[in-house]
Amino acid sequence: MARVVVDVMPKAEILDPQGQAIVGALARLGFDGVAGVRQGKRFELEVADTVDDVVLENIAADVLANTVIEDYTVTRVQVSS
Amino acid sequence: MARVVVDVMPKAEILDPQGQAIVGALARLGFDGVAGVRQGKRFELEVADTVDDVVLENIAADVLANTVIEDYTVTRVQVSS
């Protein structure tokens, strides 16, 4: 089995109201110095060793991310037999 | 400014119905070989250089994560003046 991480973030040109809300909350709570926050999703997948990078790209692009408004990165973090 | 990534994932002993739904969806869509998925959150913060690691820990533990059911990791990914 292999461990794969897919990070999905809103594209830079897309407004992120969740992130903006967190910036405001941090300021109200007294955490100064945080200029920006963007919130996305992180998926940790356990996949069989037969799953190649092309399939992982398809999973990320077709199922996990909405590529109209989100960017994604696929990273293999660990391979053990 | 420094770029900081905070990853928040459900603790291993916590059920993750979102992740389980994704496993089922992938199987129905013909993506075989995915044994498990866990879904969490990824936060990308732009913070001033004056914000030290203790403050970042507090931000992650008190605001971004619910430490009863979630684990978090704080990673500085880039420091530029």
UniProtKB/TrEMBL annotation, chains A, B:
The keyword DNA repair does not apply. Keywords: ATP-binding, Cytoplasm, Ligase, Nucleotide-binding, Purine biosynthesis. It is found in: Cytoplasm. SUPFAM superfamilies: PurS-like. InterPro entries: PurS, PurS-like_sf. Pathway: Purine metabolism; IMP biosynthesis via de novo pathway; 5-amino-1-(5-phospho-D-ribosyl)imidazole from N(2)-formyl-N(1)-(5-phospho-D-ribosyl)glycinamide: step 1/2. The keyword Ligase applies. Its EC number is 6.3.5.3. It catalyses: N(2)-formyl-N(1)-(5-phospho-beta-D-ribosyl)glycinamide + L-glutamine + ATP + H2O = 2-formamido-N(1)-(5-O-phospho-beta-D-ribosyl)acetamidine + L-glutamate + ADP + phosphate + H(+). It is an enzyme of class 6 (ligase). Belongs to the PurS family. HAMAP family: PurS (MF_01926). This is Phosphoribosylformylglycinamidine synthase subunit PurS. It comes from Gordonia defluvii.
